[in-house]
Amino acid sequence: MYDSLDKDYTGMGSADAETEETFEGAVLVTFQGDFNSDNVEISAVELVDGPDSIDFGYVEPDPGDDYYDDR
What we know:
The protein has a domain at 25-51.
């Protein structure tokens, strides 16, 4: 969040959330190495065809449990 008084940005914290969604898509996998031996590795993976958007629902800042414990 931008602080107009100090002219800098202040973090608002962070939180992890997880959900599972299933969709059909196409993936481009790029391999790199010597294909005449076992020295081949994946150098890039790109989703080239997938959903145009994903609905994350309502997203809001989460002050965390410590915020409520200190009140």
